[in-house]
Specification:
0% strand; mainly alpha
């Protein structure tokens, strides 16, 4: 499956699907806040790193792929599951980059200029995420 960037898919997303994503994201944030209040900010912060809209996105990706195939007269649902799995892999890889970003900011924000820390941390997140994605692609071909 080839990954592409296509803005036209935004037009194919229904208004309520944006609402579902918004609700999932908000619910995860509220849960993280409640956990932080109960167990402290470090513990709660771990849950803020959860890709909040991933559960909604994975199901919507699978649904959209299934609908495209159905409209084309194809009953095989393998592509939808593959697309959702690819979305999950992307979320996992992005989480690795996010963990590196968080660690860098946590350790260096008290010592360095905040703007420099965030710029370097963002670059670290991007670099680690791209490298991890490439590594996951090579591993999946085996």
């Amino acid at each position: 499956m080839k990954i592409t960037f296509d803005l036209s898919t935004l037009a194919g997303t229904r208004w309520y699907e944006y609402g579902v994503r918004f609700l999932f994201g908000g619910a995860i944030t509220v849960i993280a806040g409640l956990l932080a209040k109960r167990f402290g900010p470090i513990f709660g912060g771990l849950f803020l790193a959860f890709p909040a809209i991933f559960p909604a996105s994975a199901t919507l990706v699978e649904k959209h792929e299934r609908e495209k195939k159905w409209k084309a007269g194809i009953t095989n649902t393998t592509r939808g599951r593959q697309a959702a799995a690819l979305d999950a892999r992307g979320a996992a890889v992005g989480s690795i980059g996010l963990a590196c970003f968080a660690w860098f900011v946590w350790k260096l924000l008290p010592v360095w200029n905040a703007g420099v820390v965030l710029l370097v941390a963002l670059s670290l997140w991007l670099g680690v995420s791209v490298l991890a994605w490439e590594a996951s692609k090579k591993h999946s071909r085996r």
